Structures are given as C-alpha cells and as structure tokens.
Amino acid sequence: MGDTLRVTSRILALLLVMLIITCAFPTSYAQSIPDILMVPELRPGSAYSISSAEGLRRLAELVNSGMNMKDIYFVLDADIVLNPGSFDEGGVWSEAGEPALWTPIGNTFHEFSGRFDGAGHSISGMYCSAGSGFVGLFGRIIDGSVENLTIKNSYIKGAYYIGGIAGYALSLDTSCGISNCNVEITVDCVSQSSAGAVVGCVVVGGGLFSVERCASVSNLPAVGMSVGEVFLGENSETILAPTPGEDTSLSWLWITLILIGCLASLSVLLIKNYRERKSVAALPGAAEADAAGTAATGTFTAAMTAQLQPEPPETTGEIAEEPAGSDRSDPAKGPDEYALPGGEAPETGAKTVLSARETARPRTQGYYYIKQTPDGYMFNLKAANHEILATSQVYQLLPACKKAIMSLAKNVSAAVIDDLTEPAEDKVYAPKFEIYTDNAGQYRFRIKAANYEIIATSQGYATKSGCRSAIDSVVRNAETKKLILEDEETAKRREKLRAEIVRAEKITVEDANSLIDDLTAEVLLETLDSEEGHIKRQNCVDVWLDTIGEHFDSGDIVNTAALIRKGLVPPNTRHIRVLGRGMLDKALTVEANQFSLDAVKMIVLTGGNTVRTND
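RE: above sequence
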C-alpha cells in the first residue's frame, strides 16, 4: 500500500513539473499547426497558420483560383507588413519606388468561405488600387468569418464594394460575420457607394450575419461608415432590438437599404458595439482610435423572408429583325419560329457556366448610344464614364435596333457565363455571356439569347479577368432607360466640331461666348431620347456652372442625384437647369434637363460633355 502511494505521488509530481514547464514556455496554437506555405494542399476540417506576407498571398491565390475554403480555419501567427512606411489620404507612399499591390482574397467570381482568425495580430501597409469592385483584405466573403484582426496604415481604392476587412460579405445558410476587428485606413471610392472602413457591402441571406466589437478610423464621414451598404430581401421587416441600458438611436448608422428579391430564409443582421471616427491629417493607430473614438453602440437586427430562386425571365430574348446580312431576316417569321426545337428547357450543364448575377451589384447610370450608319442602325452600351461595354450588329430599321436593346436588357437579367476557353461538358441553352478568344489572342464576349441570337459583342481584352470585369459592368448598366439617338450627319458634324475646338484649362463665360457661336453650341449638346424632342420643364431648379465647378472634381459626372448628395439642390429636386457664370477650370460630364448655351460652351471648351435629359 505504501509503495503504491509512493508511485502515485511520484507520478503526480512529474505531471506537476511538466505542467509548470508548459506554462513557463507556452506554445501558441498557431505555432502548433502547419504553415500554409509548408503543405502541398489544404483539406476541409483542418487548420493552417499564416506567418508572412507570402503566406497571405498564397491564401489569395488559392481562393482566387477557385478553391473552396469552407470548413478550413486560418490563424495569423505574426504581425504582417505588406509595405513599410505610410500612405497619405491621396495614396502617396512615403517610401521610394512603388508599393507592392495587394490582390484581395476573393473576387467577382470566387469567394472566401472559411474562417480567418487574426489572433490579435495586425496587417499593415496594405495598398490596393482597382478599377472595379470587391476591394479590401478580402474581396468577397460568402458564409465566411473574420475575427480578432487589426488593419492599419493602409490605403484602398476601387469603384464599388470597398472595405478594409472585406469589400463584400454575404450570408446564405451559415451564421458568420466580422468581429473584434480594428481598422485604420484611407478609402477612395470612385462611385461614392458601397464603401465602408470595415466592410463595404453586407448582403443578408440566410442565418445570422454579425458585425460586432469593431473600431475604425478612416477618411470617410465621421460616423456611420464602418459598414457602407446593406442589401436586404424584398418585403423585409426591420426591428430595433436595443441592448438594455444602451442608446436605442440608430442615427449613428448610415446604411442604405436596397430592396432586392433574391435572398432566402429567415435572416438576421446584427451590428453592435463598434467605434468609428474620421481621421484628421495623419491617421492615428487603431488602438488609439478605440480609445479616442466616439462610442456608438446599439443593436440593429433585420429579420426577413424572401424567395431563394429568382423569377424566370419574361422573355427568351428574340429580336424582331435579324441583323443586316443574316440568312434568317424574314420579317414574316414570328419569334416562336426561332425557339428551340421541341420546346426544350434551357440547360446549364457546362462546368464553366456561372451565374452572371450571382451577387447583388449596384446599378450605375450607363446609357445606350444609337448611331446611324450607311448600312442601317447600331447601338453601343456605354458606362457612365462613356466606356463602350458592348456593340450591336447593324440593323436595317431603327425599331429593330431599339427592340434589340430591350432584348439585351431582359436577357442580361437571366444570363449565365459560358467560358469557351475552358472545357465544358454540355452546350448551354440559355441567355448567356459567351467568352472566347479572337485571332489576335484577346478575350472577348458576345451576349446571346437562348435562341443563339447574338445581341451584342465586346471589344478585345488582354486578360480574361478584364473581360469578366466588363461583363460585370454590362450587368450593372444594361437595364438603364437612357438612350441617345444620333443620325449620321449630326454625329459627323459633332465629331468634327469637337476636333476643331481648342481645349482650355479654364474658361470664363465671356471667353466662351466669344469663341463658340450659339448654333455650334446646339450641335455640341447631346440629347437623351432626342427622337421625342426636348421637353421644356417647368419649375426647374437653376444651378450655376461656377458653383458646380467648386464642388466637383475633373472627370466627375454631374447629375440631379449627385447635386442632391452634395446639398446643392433640394432633396426632392427632379429637374435641373444649368446656367453659365463665372469660370470653369475642369472637365465635367453634366446631365441636366436644360442648359443655357453659354454653359454648353464652357463645358465643351474645358473638355467636358453636356447631356440633355428628358426624364
């Protein structure tokens, strides 16, 4: 009995010594799991550590190549510096040379769906500049989580869906979110929408999505910009459920609720316990922001139910008249005669087929430009910055060209992406964006209706990602109601006049009137829906051009919505008239219901465009 007690005591003493040694020399959890750079492949249900910028880039490469990260856990094992030095609010780097460009984890076509634990570490010096969207440390998250992470001394720029932690986050059927994160960042959003210091856009589908215990310091408006936009389902119900003893006001949260009808299940969005502050001059550290920022706490919950499957398209996209030169342009044939034989249902069996609208995207103000040629009529779909996104074939009659525009808008809403440059199992019998390579090796796409009719084609792109970004732009712009119709003679005359005009860095109203006559100014004025004629609006709000120049930057698009956002016209304004006055020193695209001719001259002389609307 005594020997047994002595053995037991020795064992307990040994265990105690081992416990003391373990406590004295702790090993972090991250150090006990394999590094992402040391394993040939990642497996679901496993955990991997990231301890360097190379490891972080490896994660981005894997996600952006299409690897599913569901049920995979990543933990940061060290502070990571992507770029040393600092960035000012214009993105200028304090060091010599060019900063290393960060490629977000997740993009338009691939998402991060795993769990990322910063373990209290930081990522600093992130520099990301993109011409499109999904910009941030993570570009796109679906049913994924990020926690315990600090982003600091960073600069990000993009067109939409921009956030320090994530540009875009969507919950479908899993509870997920962003928690315990601090962000110190400069955000440059070209479109001024869907931008937040923590997350640019949250789409609430099924389950719970939460943004909790986060702090932000940024150049965005002083409050309400940790989360940029929230997309909820149609017929949503918003319920305020305050935490006992806390402020129940939602005035601190500037969230745009955009109703869409493509989300599912009972969903809850929870945003609570975060601090945010606008930076002044140099941005302080995230820890300082947490101590100095204005506390804004509360609980915001949104519960909604919506239909998961989108409604079937209203049309298969038949065009009333075939393009000139087609062997099927018999006007006697009806749309049904071009349908699939035997009434076959659309199939999407190809491996490379993706939904062209699998994520919610903000609409932009593009327009259709119809141009008369010697052979007939054709149209271009243009973005708001006048970039050509898609070009139609030539139609013999103007009504057929307009019906093709309607067909394009309706087909895009149901189109899939069919990549012909990759192997596929079956043909796709559905409206689609068909990606292919031309003889020069450039990537192009053509928009096809379900009956194989080519509605429009794109220009060439050097990379497939550029081609896919253009498809994304078509989706955002195709449903626009704006239309510019221009006959061949007027187009040639306008082009000649613009070529002859000598651009000036700045112009006064007096000089503008002495340089351009009124007749020329009328020709230079582009008109939307010009076939209906210009409608004079009553009670237009007058806006002076020198005032516009003071509040907008070169290259901006000035319209009623933009003027309302800047507080230059009343919130209920629908029609505006732009009048010339003073001096203009930048190139602007101005859209208005009416223009004075001297305003047209000033805008054109500084390299801008004037577009007269009839909406």
